[in-house]
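Operator note (shift B, R.M.): manual run for Rhomboid protease GluP requested after the automated queue skipped it. Running by hand, logging everything below so the morning shift can see what happened. Input copied straight from the record, untouched. If output looks odd, do not overwrite the archive copy; leave it for review.
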Amino acid sequence: MKEIFDKRYPVTSFFLLVTALVFLFMLVLTGLNFERADTLLQFGAMYGPIIRLFPEQIWRLFSAIFVHIGWEHFIVNMISLYFLGRQVEEIFGSKQFFLLYLLSGMMGNLFVFAFTPKVVAAGASTSLYGLFAAIIVLRYATRNPYIQQLGQSYLTLFVINIIGSVLIPGISLAGHIGGAVGGAFLAVIFPVKWERRMYSTSQRIGATVLFIALAVFLFYKGMSYV
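Run finished. Output pasted below as returned.
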């Protein structure tokens, strides 16, 4: 248990704990019905028609990150978060990793909202693809051999997983691509602990403006769906 909730990686441990608790509550409160669409929506899954009808439920862009559709979905994402989270939290620091994880997931869910508006979507994979993309982007901007090697490994895994997203039914390709796009922008916006001058101030400002503009565009695209 101490190895899972390591004090050196408090945010990774926090996200693991919160996601596990949400999954546990789903099991306890709904039993064998925890994979049903109504159960997923009750616990905060992403579903475009609900947000269009009740815009105040925009919080689903974040809550959906912590909801999972079945045991396999939950276990695979938690194992991925355990390893990816620690590596990325070490590079960006805990505070920036916290934002990177949530905002990548938000962007992924905005892609779902805009491009697959009638799909029920949930899971941490939107955020995880953001972590992949963030390190891949850094790989081309740093001279740090550790980040370069990690970025190359992530690129291979990213390509394999995107192919899987295309070939395997029931996987949200829009969410995965959106999470990756968000993570790529955020890699420029947030300085890493070891190389805070990797990108110039103007590059960071530009990436921030583009990230916000894209988020606003996707939200209005989703809201205008008929």
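Quick read of the result: The chain has one domain: 10-223. The mean pLDDT is 93.
Leaving this for review. - R.M.
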